[in-house]
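Thread: Newbie trying to understand structure tokens

Hi all, I'm a second-year student working on a class project, and my supervisor (Dr. K.) asked me to get a predicted structure for one chain before our next meeting. I've only ever worked with sequences, so writing a 3D structure as a token string is new to me. If someone could post the tokens and maybe explain what I'm looking at, I'd be very grateful. Here's the chain:
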Amino acid sequence: MPSEKRRYVAFTREMKKDYTILAPNMLTLHFRLLMQVLRNHGYHMELLETDDPSIIETGLKYVHNDTCYPAILVIGQFISAIQSGKYDPHRVALIYFQTGGGCRASNYISLLRKALEKAGYGYVPVISMNLTGLERHPGFRLSVRTMIELIHAVLFGDLLMSLRNQCKPYEITPGASDALADRITRELADKMKHDPAYFAQTRAIYRHILDQFAAVPRSGERKVRVGIVGEIYVKFSPLGNNHLEQLLVDEGAEVVTPGLFDFLTFTLFTKLTDTKLYGMGRLRYPLLRAACRVMLSKQKELIDVMKKDGRFRAPTPFERIAALGREVVDEGVKMGEGWLLPAEMLELNDSGVHNVVCAQPFGCLPNHIVGKGMMKPIKEKHPEINLVAIDYDSGATRVNQENRIRLMLSNASPGGAVTD
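---
Reply by user tm_fold:
Sure, no problem. This is what the structure looks like when written as tokens:
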């Protein structure tokens, strides 16, 4: 078998000119905006929004079935796209977003390259987009400005997701909230493309988005709120969790999903923790600390606008989430979603969402520890919380998953009802 070194194909500066870079989907609203930011900086980005059962079969054809479920889905989506005939395999590159932690996700790039080789596409470049120096590609570099714009894109995405979820269960016209979120996403992408200074107008943009969603006609009924936490991909991706959010809405619940911004901030904070606990990365500590301060200030800006507006629930500050997490787990626990996962359970409960679904890939050791493994101490500390862990895997039956969720809803805590 060829060595890993032979499988590595760098994305060069020349490739940037005419290669299409395919990105896997996870959060459509967020990723459409992230793609636009990268397009603005000269990359030919395309988001793969395919959502077909054949993706799983393609993934299983080229990846062992014991591999992490998100890897099977992402690799299946990539290879399905190349095999579709829509793209020239010799003018296409793939990008995967990584944290660089100790989770098996850090091996996805190697797994993807092996799968591409097996499928006959070993020449396709695979870009690892990460902040830990896992790999470097001459043709793919992110400037400070680009990263700041990406942060704004994530915050816009979190805001749209939150407002859509707060409106969708109560909308008078079915589909109005989804349609509005899609329209605003297109408008934002267009503004990003034609207004280089758009990120200096974030407060005005936030207020405009709030006004748009406040105008959605809604009923005054009260519905039980249900939170979703878990492994990052299965938590967010409809392909990975069998459209969990829509199932909950169809069952009469309001979905509350912690945003992507908190996860990104968590990955930065773990680097600071490494320095505090183990002395790792002392030279870059000041830079990471400054980056964390920028992240928190950007989140505070959004929270301040939402609280002043007062018509929708604002996110909880990351510092508050971290403080809640320290009640049950040490900040040194960082594998997978680490301390953030139980912290999000506690934050949801603290904000009145007492019903929580923990979505995790079957056999995901980090998440079985910080997710399912933390449920007992959390329930002992907060007996009012109603938790259920749902495993997602290529061999898991959808009916069983849905029945377990419906059972949880039948015991839903009334404290999770909308009170504001």
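A couple of things are worth pointing out once you decode it. The first helix runs from residue 4 to 7. DSSP finds 18 helices and eight strands in the chain. Feel free to ask follow-ups in this thread.
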